[in-house]
Amino acid sequence: MAPLHSLNPSSRFKTCALLAIAGILAAACAGQSDVAQKMIGDIQTTVDAAAPEAAKYVPDQLADVQSKLGELKASYDKKDYKAVVSAAPPVMSAAQGLGGAAAARKQLIQQGFADEWNTLSSSLPPDASSIQSRIEFLSKPENKKLTSGVDLDAARSNLSEAQSLWANAQDASAKGDLEAAVTIAKVVKSKLAALAASMKLDLAQPAAVRDTAPDS
After folding, report:
1. For 25-83, what is each residue's pLDDT tens digit?
2. DSSP for 136-155?
């Protein structure tokens, strides 16, 4: 390009105008770059804060937001800052929604565990008590003929193991870990059911019947 002082006034004006426009465009581009970069950073920070709970309770939503964030970063790398600025707000909105969605899902799951725990904690102790009564009943000399096929020593051992597990379940519940409490309680339920079956005890019968009248 020829030096400005060598150009005629008209050409000099056009050249100055072009340089001014180029400067404005460069400044605008730099400004959009900063804005786009900040938007991406803010979204990343929001996602990182919500990720631990979101990964556990709403993994699909988290993956969707992370995918869209990846698209924003790709646009930024291509210097398409306008696309970033345009697309970032809904992505930020989705990122901000992760925490609430995870909390709602967590509460729903916890309520399910609470309901299940209430059911198990009301049924398992009576079942264990009935099995204990059956063991005591069959241990009496006059009922020896009813113990055919029943290993009372094994029954006592298995009941003791189930009771120990039940204590662990109660401890987990007391600590607020209902998921662990329910998981352990289900193992106890399975053990008690198998133990009752081995002793020909129908836990579905009324207690007054099942505790004193074993099937022959």
Report:
1. 444 455 689 999 999 999 999 999 999 999 999 999 999 999 999 999 999 999 999 99
2. HHHHSGGGGGGGTT--HHHH
Residue 126: exposure state from Cβ atoms within 10 A (0-12, 13-18, ≥19)? exposed
Q: State the Cα–Cα distance between residues 212 and 130, nearest whole angstrom.
A: 9
pLDDT tens profile 170-203: 999 999 999 999 999 999 999 999 999 988 888 8
Both tokens assigned to 164: 């120990």
96 contacts 46 by C-beta, under 8 angstroms: yes
Q: Is 32 helix (H, G, I), strand (E, B) or coil?
A: helix
- Report which of 159, 164, 184 is spatially closest to residue 173, judged by C-alpha positions: 184
Integer angstrom CA distances of residue 32 from 4, 27, 39, 70, 144: 31, 9, 10, 18, 90
Structure tokens at 200: 């020909």
**Has this prediction a pTM greater than 0.70?**
no
